[in-house]
Amino acid sequence: MRRRWISPSAVIWLLVAAAFFLLPLIATLLFSLRNIQTNKCCSSAAYSLIIHDGQFWHTIRLSFVLALETITISLLLFVPTLYWVHLKVPRLRPVLGFMALVPFVVPPIILVVGLLNFYKGSPSWFYDKPYGFLAFAYVILAFPYMYFSLDAGFRAIDLHTLTEASLNLGASWRTTLLRVILPNIRAAALGGSFLTLAIVMGEFTIASLAAFKTFPTYIQFINETQPYEAAALALLSFLIVWAAMLGLLFVGRGRPRPAQAAATR
Asked: What is the distance between the alpha carbons of residues 224 and 9, in angstroms, rounded to a whole number?
């Protein structure tokens, strides 16, 4: 069997891409290892201060819960909506596509001011709590990413054939959506979830103007007051977010089942 060799140009571009990605991380790591008193390498004092800071764990827990809440609400809203639009009213797809572009046009600073004024008279459990107001704002902010990911997933499958086969085998609409359609768009749902997680973990404007202390606002506070700790926090946040994405990937992965076998259950 003939062996395939990687071309030298491909190796060069891979090295350039790796350097572009890794060199800033290495520089940040070396800066974060400097001793706070002597300004010399190497010391883990910055990491120790961050890890033992209670605000670090509080804010990152809050941001993760907000991310999971935003992902859950987005999937519950958009999966049934896109399924029905693709199946019954495809002429509404351009309308939804236009609506999905609105968060790109409206800056977050204008969005949060409008939402704060609009929901000023709402109950305190929604307006004054991050799990209410912020989660709703983040669903709007993540709408384009979740919509276009799911839309691509629905367009990649034969939706009408799968639905008709499932209904003809005696499955209900709920069973069809959960056991036939959803497993076939798992990759698209995971893609939208990854983007939503990254957005929530890095969103600063809305949380800051709404006076909520989330992980991005904590990073900004540390960056303004403690330079070495800020570098350590940047690396820690990078690793934590990537670990969360990997965890979300493993949770979302499941053993694929044939659509017809799922429909008969």
From this structure: 42
Cα separations in angstroms, 217 against 104, 205, 227: 22, 9, 15
pLDDT at 37: 64
Cβ 82 vs Cβ 157: under 8 Å: no
Helix (H, G, I), strand (E, B) or coil at 265: coil
Total-model pTM: 0.81
Residue spans of the chain under pLDDT 50:
1, 256-265
Rounded distance, CA 17 to CA 11, Å?
10
Q: Is the peptide bond before 41 cis (omega within 30 degrees of 0)?
A: no
| pLDDT on residue 3 | 60
- What whole-number distance in Å separates Cα of residue 223 and Cα of residue 40? 20
Nearest to 259 by CA among 152, 192, 160, 155: 160
Domain membership of residue 180 (yes or no) is: yes
Provide the domain count of the chain.
1
234 found inside a domain = yes
pLDDT in tens, 230-251: 888 888 888 887 887 777 777 6
* Domain presence at residue 109: yes
Rounded to an integer, what distance in angstroms lies between the CA atom of residue 120 and that of residue 204?
21
> Any idea what the CATH number is for the domain that residue 193 is in?
1.10.3720.10
Residue 169 near residue 155, CB atoms below 8 Å:
no
Domain boundaries, position 109: 53-263
CA atoms within 13 A on the CB side of 146: 28
Report yes or no: 67 and 59 within 8 Å, Cβ to Cβ: no
pLDDT of residue 111: 87
Cβ density class 94-119: b for 16+ within 10 Å, e for less: eebeeebeebeeeebeebbeebbeee
Judge whether 9 lies within some domain. no
